[in-house]
């Protein structure tokens, strides 16, 4: 008896593709607002400072929602929550396109979009953990996190293609249509393996919240310093004497290399067995040195700092998710909801704190403070990993056995 296509188990490609596309449209509303802000501000008469508030509202709500995502996924299932995330993204962009006349409407739309993104990220992590082959988890998580720069590129393309000839409202309407199409790519829940059938690994152990909260704090600090790079690099470059056009090109190149780095590190994670959370910590520390280069005010060092920062200090998101999911087989949504919450909180608070420090002092002081925050993030992540390892005696024993075999 033949099995219909709708009833076949979801393939690694379809599940991974759905996770990437949902992640892309999940953050699309806030990046659309960012790149179209000049047109929105001129049309509706909003102040310049409102953009920072809107971005913070989105990421802060996303971070809070992520903490509850594990419970939501357990209650409603992985596929329905992933679909819900895309539907909420579409609805929020449609509201902005049709009804954004006042500040309240924009804030409300981005708060709702942030909630949808917050529950959708851990749900898509669970989708990867359950349906993608374990030998491709690193690549899948790396590609998923590279979808965030992809969302920025899509939003940027909307400016010359749609917003300039037709206006910013049609751009949001088209974005809503794209988000609804993404819903069709999500495999049905009956096509996914049961959550309790994840392949047992030597990393298996009890679920402990305390180590994950420590890791979440480290991720929050790392995300705060990394998101400040994306928010303030162009302004810093222009302040350092680089032309706006050149600064824009540098931002695009650095962002592109950062996306490629996320995918490359994910691919490498599937090929090499190592302490990947320590690698995450090292990336954060290297990112701190890169942010310090931005504080020098020297044009060449500013350009180098941006590229190095994107490739190290802001390239660890997929690796951290991969490592946490691998150490919690069958509990990926529950575990990554905690670290994803820290990531969302950091993405919201980092640019706000950076802006306050830069306003009170200078860009140089703010970048040096940002560098210190990245270094602290690396230290906290190492401590969080140590706490996790105490609960993984089988993993520790396997590592010692491999060390002895190499001697």
What this model shows, in words?
- With 407 residues, the protein is mainly α.
- It folds into two domains: 11-199, Up-down Bundle (Growth Hormone, Chain: A); 201-407, MFS general substrate transporter like domains (Growth Hormone, Chain: A), CATH 1.20.1250.
- Helices cover 80% and strands 0% of the residues.
- α8 (209-239) runs parallel beside α13 (332-360).
- The longest helix has 31 residues, at 209-239.
- It is globular, with a radius of gyration of 21 Å.
- Residues 1-5 have low confidence and may be disordered.
Kindly name the structural category: mainly alpha
CATH class of the largest domain, anyone? Mainly Alpha
Compute the number of helices.
Answer: 15
What's the average pLDDT? 83
What's the CATH H-level superfamily name of the largest domain? Answer: MFS general substrate transporter like domains
Low-confidence residue ranges: 1-5
Order of helices and strands: HHHHHHHHHHHHHHH
CATH-defined topology of the largest domain = Growth Hormone, Chain: A
| CATH level-two architecture of the largest domain | Up-down Bundle
Gross morphology = globular
What is the beta-strand fraction?
under 5%
Cα separation of the termini = 54 Å
Radius of gyration: 21 Å
- Helix percent reads over 70%
Descriptive terms for the model:
mainly alpha; Growth Hormone, Chain: A; 2 domains; disordered N terminus; globular; 407 residues
What is the compact description of this entry?
The chain has 407 residues and is mainly alpha-helical.
